[in-house]
Specification:
Elements: H1 2-16, E1 30-37, E2 48-52, E3 58-62, E4 68-74, E5 77-84, E6 91-97, E7 102-104, E8 107-108, E9 138-140, H2 142-146, H3 152-163, E10 174-176, E11 179-180, E12 191-196, E13 213-217, E14 225-234, E15 251-262, E16 268-290, E17 296-319, E18 324-340, E19 352-368, E20 373-390, E21 396-399, E22 403-406, E23 412-430, E24 433-449, E25 457-460, E26 463-466, E27 484-487, H4 489-501, H5 506-511, E28 518-524, E29 527-546, E30 549-560, E31 569-577, E32 586-596, H6 601-609, E33 615-620, H7 623-626, H8 635-640, E34 646-650, E35 658-670, E36 674-693, E37 719-743, E38 746-759, E39 779-780, E40 787-796, E41 801-810, E42 814-815, E43 834-835, E44 845-847, E45 850-853, E46 868-869, E47 873-886, E48 891-893, E49 900-902, E50 906-915, E51 955-963
Parallel strand pairs: 1-7, 1-8, 10-13, 21-25, 34-37
Antiparallel strand pairs: 1-4, 2-3, 2-5, 5-6, 9-12, 10-11, 12-13, 14-15, 14-51, 15-16, 16-17, 17-18, 18-19, 19-20, 20-23, 21-22, 23-24, 24-29, 25-28, 26-27, 28-33, 29-30, 30-31, 31-32, 32-35, 35-36, 36-37, 37-38, 38-39, 38-40, 40-41, 41-47, 42-46, 43-45, 44-45, 47-50, 48-49, 50-51
């Protein structure tokens, strides 16, 4: 297996050689380049560097994301180099440039403030037409990260909230050091900076920049430094979860240690980080069940769900010479979780214990090939082993939107991934053009051992049934016929158990409104293996036509092996114009481009698994089978019944989904180091994934009371669940952001997003209400969160206490409203009701969302998809930090008339971090099944922005940090 990886790398490297430009044999002019860092060796980005020539002429450059500045085509002579950066002392240096020389001048800036806490590298920089400098981007460093959660999972959620509503159905992406995130984000103390929504139309990335989160980890330093941290949280510091009966026992302990310094001499350094998370968490169950007397009653309970996780990483940087550097990074993230899969409607019997063992090895080289050309090569090999165990000996009992009990999904499963990924990117400057080109190749091998649903699942749904009195006797209607009423899924389950106790036959139980609605089971070969390879190459040209106008054009091509879609070309264009003279205070930016998404390999694996040969899957509504409840018939027994199987497949015409995006933004620099941006984004997506049962009974041929009825378009064939790329999506967004610094001690960021998104699918698992009529499916997308606000500040207050408050607010999330019944025989419960013509019709359900008819007549228009809207979300977070400095350190410039001050080498920091300060009960998505007793009600909390957990609404974390 490794030989093919090595061969693939060598083939890709050789293929890139003809693409490289011919380097000049000799230079006709000189150049100056270098890297700007702070005293700890961290690079400083977006800093303007000014070069003044012997005749007073001036050239300007700006450091890129590696902190590198470049002056090309410099004539021989004496120059003055000036560097100014907020929070640092200005640096001036005389440079004498010889003819045809390549001068390398690295600069280390010194802090200009006496109190280190006043330094903020992220203060608003002058806006310019560089494509990477869009002011709508959010840059977070040490101070800004303070107000975000310390928990890695909640940190990821908070960053996604800051990124705003997803631009497109594919959503945003998180990158760590240039690689797509797999697993957990790094601990916050190992993050150097986070860049959100930067340069959205570059061809370098496959997905749109709106929603892109780029995390850069900390490099080593030239002096030994270390940090030891301890985080603590206990239930006594938290409020009770509104859905939990009591404040459940809870404790969280994080132990974090990192160290950095020189490795072998002055050219190499390392950064090592270790974190152990011990979380005695809880899963909150909110369900509707039956008590021993078969009375319907709510169940609210908490179950201990402990987690033990480790994050270990070591990074080594080596500067080979002035033009070449290397980076090696190893990450190890084992995890152990107990009682996962429990909570909401799922009872304790469904618990699964899981173990995860993940490794990632990364290697990056950066080379300055000439004064105009640089190259970056990245390689990652990652592998993970995941094992799950549960009690899958009994069939699952699924009572729709009431409870799910019985056995777990499986007794044992394993999922292994081996993935190789490498990138090669080259940047070359040719006069006013900055060219960037290269590609990415990924090869992932999957082994999935999953005997899911091998014990079977009984499903109970609501519907019409005879009305019963208090003694469970049938209430006669007109002409002595039983009166029919709408019953819930839990009522059908209650009648089943009640009449079984009375000894009635399955047929008699079904006549009285009992009996399971559906039974499903799988069997056969539980293991499936598959490999997915995908590649993308691109060329990007940023052309600075004038000092105040930059035009960008790029082209990207992508392909993957598990589909036949070969014309995936993605052109992209953008511009940035600063009206008036260069370096003005306003910039207008625009862009348009095509962005492709990948077809997940999991769909190919599902099609291979349930092809009718590897595994057989049955979805049965035959009363003869359903009458066996609670015993589960085997796959072999069902095969003897000659019942048709259910198979899954990828449609023959499946192709890569793509997204057409355009945006226009206005950026304005205001007083007090403030930058305001307004951005309009419009997008259309085509060929989105959805699923259909393409062999469902033809319309009008199925009678729900006769499960065997219905005429199928493919007679004698089973149900065929096909994954198609026939969905569409449309989105409008208007985003306002402002960032700035009022004073040296107060900085802030704020954003507001107005969003409207419509689609006819929400992903590969979205089935339509009617397989043969998709005209009613286009409606609100699940991404249609209409309003979103994010505000955060960093304030240095009295007595050296730093205050970092942040507020997150959004409007409600749409959700689908369904009947909870299968009226058309497609074995799915996706049917939507119609708006009731009158509330007196039998079965009409009156809700706060409207009056619904769960039995629409043929041709009657259904309610729109995702008609419901859940509750809004609001949370305020607050971080208070106090640092004590002590010890004797070397003298350092304080930036005030050449004076010096002693920098204390030891720092002890105490923090109190409060999440959801005002204890807001942020509820999750309501239940959309109108036959559920909980219809329109939320039974979970909403976990967004790292503000809520199953344990509590408000949480107070105690944090201690020792740095040397």
């Amino acid at each position: 297996m490794y030989k093919k990886y090595i061969a693939a790398i060598m083939t890709a490297l050789v293929s890139l050689v003809p693409c490289a430009p011919a380097f000049p044999a000799q230079q006709t002019s000189s150049s100056i380049r270098g890297q700007i860092t702070d005293e700890l060796g961290d690079v400083i980005v977006n800093v303007e560097v000014e070069l003044t020539g012997p005749n007073g002429e001036r050239l300007t450059s700006r450091t890129n994301k590696e902190g590198v500045y470049i002056f090309n085509t410099v004539a021989a002579g004496k120059y003055t180099l000036l560097v100014k950066a907020n929070g640092f002392a200005p640096h001036t240096q005389l440079v004498e440039v010889a003819a045809k020389a390549r001068e390398v001048l690295d600069i280390k800036l010194r802090v200009a403030l006496k109190d280190e806490k006043e330094v903020n590298v992220t203060a608003a920089a002058p806006i310019n037409t560089d494509p990477d400098s869009n002011a709508s981007a959010i840059v977070l460093r040490e101070k800004e990260l303070e107000s975000l959660p310390d928990d890695p999972d909640e940190l990821a959620a908070a960053l996604q909230a800051l990124a705003g509503p997803s631009a497109g159905p594919g959503g945003g992406q998180i990158y760590v050091d240039g690689f797509t995130l797999e697993g957990r984000v790094p601990p916050k103390n190992s993050i150097k900076e986070v860049r959100i929504n930067q340069n959205p139309f570059t061809a370098e990335f496959d997905r749109l920049g709106f929603g892109r989160i780029f995390i850069t980890t900390r490099p080593g330093t030239n002096k030994y430094h270390g940090t030891a941290m301890f985080h603590f949280n206990d239930e006594v510091l938290n409020s009770r979860n509104a859905f939990a009966p009591t404040r459940a026992p809870f404790q969280l302990r994080y132990y974090t240690f990192d160290t950095s310094g020189p490795l072998f001499g002055s050219r190499s350094s390392f950064f090592a980080n270790f974190q152990r998370r011990e979380i005695d968490d809880n899963a909150v169950i909110n369900a509707i069940t039956l008590n021993p007397n078969l009375d319907i009653s709510p169940l609210s309970d908490t179950v201990l769900a402990p987690r033990r996780e480790i994050f270990f990483s070591v990074r080594a940087d080596y500067q080979i010479n002035q033009n070449h550097s290397m980076l090696g990074h190893y990450v190890y993230t084992p995890a152990n979780v107990r009682n996962s899969g429990v909570g909401d409607f799922s009872l304790l019997s469904r618990a699964i214990n899981s173990e995860d063992d993940s490794h990632a090895i990364r290697f990056t080289t950066t080379s300055i090939l000439s004064a105009t050309t640089a190259n970056e090569f990245r390689l990652q090999y990652a592998f993970s082993r995941r094992n799950h165990q549960g009690d899958g000996s009994q069939p699952t009992i699924r009572v729709l939107d009431a409870f799910t009990g019985g056995g777990a999904t499986y007794s044992r499963s394993a999922f292994d991934v081996d993935a190789l990924e490498f990138h090669n990117y080259t940047t070359r400057t040719i006069r006013a053009h900055t060219l960037r080109f290269g590609g990415r190749y990924r090869n992932a091998s999957y082994r999935d051992f999953s005997p899911a649903n091998f014990a079977g699942t009984y499903t109970f749904a609501g519907g019409f049934a005879p009305e019963l009195d208090g003694a469970n006797r049938v209430v006669p209607g007109s002409s002595n016929n039983p009166a029919g009423i709408q019953i819930s899924s839990i009522e059908r389950y209650r009648r089943t158990l009640l009449f079984q106790r009375q000894g009635l036959s399955p047929a008699e139980i079904r006549a009285l409104g009992g009996g399971a609605t559906q039974f499903s089971i799988a069997g056969g070969e539980p293991e499936i293996n598959a490999t997915q390879r995908d590649a993308g190459v691109f060329l990007q040209d940023d052309w600075r036509l004038r000092d105040n106008f930059t035009f960008s054009a790029g082209l990207r091509y992508e392909n993957q092996n598990n589909i036949s879609s070969n014309l995936n070309f993605a052109p992209r264009f953008g511009f940035a114009w600063s009206p008036g003279k260069a370096g003005g205070k306003q910039v207008i930016r625009g862009g348009i481009g095509i962005f492709y998404d990948r077809i997940p390999l999991q769909l190919t694996m599902a099609a291979r698994r349930f092809d009718g040969v590897n595994q057989r899957q049955f979805i049965v509504s035959d009363p003869a089978v359903l009458g066996l409840f609670p015993q589960a018939p085997s796959v072999e027994t069902l095969a003897q019944f000659a019942l048709p199987q259910t198979i899954r497949r990828l449609a023959d015409d499946v192709r890569a989904p793509y997204f057409a995006q355009t945006s226009l933004s206005f950026e304005r620099q205001l007083p007090n180091n403030t930058i305001f941006t307004a951005t309009y984004i419009y997008g259309r997506a085509f060929h989105l994934l959805r699923a259909r049962n393409i062999n469902a009974p033809l319309p009008g041929t199925f009678n729900p009371d006769t499960p065997a009825s219905g005429v199928k378009p493919l007679p004698g064939q089973p149900n065929i669940f096909a994954y198609e790329t026939s969905g569409v999506f449309k989105q409008h967004q208007l985003i306002f952001t402002t960032t700035g610094r009022f004073t040296k001690k107060v900085s802030y960021y704020a954003s507001y997003a107005l969003n409207k998104a419509d689609s006819d699918t929400d992903g590969a698992g979205t089935f339509p209400a009617n397989t043969y009529d998709l005209s009613d499916e286009f409606g609100r997308a699940s991404l249609d969160i209409r309003h979103r606000v994010n505000v955060g500040t960093s304030i240095a207050t009295f007595y050296g206490i730093d205050l970092s408050p942040a507020v997150i607010w959004r409007s409600g999330i749409p959700f689908n409203i369904t009947t909870g019944r299968d009226f058309n025989g497609d074995t799915l419960f996706t049917e939507r009701p119609a708006f009731a013509a009158g509330i007196n019709k039998p079965g009409v359900v009156v809700t706060r969302f409207g009056a619904f008819d769960p039995n629409p007549a043929p041709g009657q228009a259904l309610i729109p998809r995702n008609l419901g809207e859940g509750p809004s979300f609001y949370a305020a977070n607050l971080s208070l930090t106090k640092t004590f400095s002590f010890g004797d350190g070397p003298a350092a410039a304080n930036g005030r008339e050449g004076g010096q001050t002693k920098e204390k080498p030891y720092k002890l920091t105490f923090s109190i971090r409060v999440y959801n300060l005002f204890n807001t009960n942020n509820q999750g998505t309501p239940i959309g099944n109108i036959t559920s007793p909980l219809f329109g009600v939320s039974n979970t909390t909403s976990s967004e922005g790292g503000t809520n957990s199953a344990t509590s609404n408000r949480r107070i974390w105690l944090h201690a940090n020792f740095r040397f």
